[in-house]
């Protein structure tokens, strides 16, 4: 994996997080400035004492401050990432890609991992994944909760886009069927247009190549080009033509899955508005 590619993508994700922190700081600063200005205005125009002015302004500001505090302190519903793997009838998923991605998602606080497939039911690694001697893969495969989820993946039809902050499409020999999976593409569009995070690796990228947004624009300008870089991606940028949309990270090889998931995790850790 080229270090420059991964670092560049992570800089996009970190920049997205920093912009969110800057907005929060600016919001609090503006409230403070408005408070001071209100006190000064009341003193000058109303002839009130300084103490009376402060108390009056506080009475007006308390509801606003309460709402602001509640938005930061009240825990919302858990964030969820949907990991889409092939159904057993279509083939297997790439163990290295899914295991490494899952490990990265584990680093995000209170992020629930949901495993789904086009048809639901059992999902298994493909024959090309090899033995699970790698520590990360072994830990993933020996996790009883993960094995239970893979034995009975949720059908995509039962996964409403509004319930997920992110979607990761896994690679593997069975992922070739994703290119014709309309429910997958529909859901991915809905999550992306709601400001969510999309990621794919290996053959999983094929599911996104023909994807069109609701306005008709393709997610990838050239659907025949998966990209020559090891990892390509961009975090949401309100100043670009994709303002209001989500973040997208892809890698044309399964080996890039960890870096894709790390970039997704960075954006999710920043608490995007779409995180659910």
SSE order and pairing:
Layout: H1 3-46, H2 50-73, E1 79-84, H3 95-105, E2 111-117, H4 135-141, H5 144-151, E3 154-155, E4 166-169, H6 182-193, E5 197-201, H7 206-209, E6 232-234, E7 247-251, H8 257-269
Helix pairs in contact: 1-2, 1-8, 3-4, 3-8
How would you describe this structure to a colleague?
The chain is of the alpha/beta class and 276 residues long. The chain folds into two domains: 71 residues; 191 residues, Class I glutamine amidotransferase (GATase) domain (Rossmann fold), CATH 3.40.50. 45% of the residues lie in helices and 12% in strands. Strands 3-2-1-4-5-7-6 form a seven-stranded mixed β-sheet. β4, α6 and β5 form a beta-alpha-beta unit. α1 packs antiparallel against α2, α3 crosses α4 and α3 runs parallel beside α8. The chain starts with a helix and ends in a 7-residue tail after the last helix.
């Amino acid at each position: 994996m080229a270090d420059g590619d991964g670092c560049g993508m992570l800089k996009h994700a970190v920049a997205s997080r920093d912009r969110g922190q800057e907005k929060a700081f600016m919001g609090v600063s503006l409230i403070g400035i408005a408070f001071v200005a209100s006190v000064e205005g009341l003193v000058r125009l109303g002839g009130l004492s300084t103490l009376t002015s402060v108390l009056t302004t506080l009475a007006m500001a308390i509801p606003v401050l309460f709402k602001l505090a509640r938005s930061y302190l009240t825990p919302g519903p858990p964030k969820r990432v949907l990991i889409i793997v092939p159904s057993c009838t279509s083939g297997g998923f790439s163990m290295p890609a899914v295991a490494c991605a899952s490990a990265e998602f584990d680093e995000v606080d209170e992020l629930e991992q949901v495993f789904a497939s086009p048809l639901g039911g059992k999902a298994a690694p493909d024959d090309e994944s090899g033995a699970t001697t790698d520590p990360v893969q072994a830990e993933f495969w020996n996790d009883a909760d993960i094995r239970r989820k893979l034995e009975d993946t949720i059908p995509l039809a039962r996964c409403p886009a509004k319930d997920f902050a992110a979607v990761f499409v896994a690679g593997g020999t069975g992922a070739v069927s994703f290119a014709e999976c309309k429910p997958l593409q529909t859901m991915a569009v809905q999550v992306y247009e709601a400001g969510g995070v999309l990621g794919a690796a290996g053959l999983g990228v094929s599911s996104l190549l023909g994807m069109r947004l609701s306005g008709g624009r393709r997610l990838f300008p050239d659907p025949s080009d998966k990209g020559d870089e090891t990892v390509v991606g961009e975090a949401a940028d309100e100043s670009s033509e994709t303002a209001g949309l989500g973040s997208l990270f892809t890698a044309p090889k399964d080996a890039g899955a960890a870096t894709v998931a790390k970039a997704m995790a960075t954006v999710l850790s920043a608490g995007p508005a779409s995180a659910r």
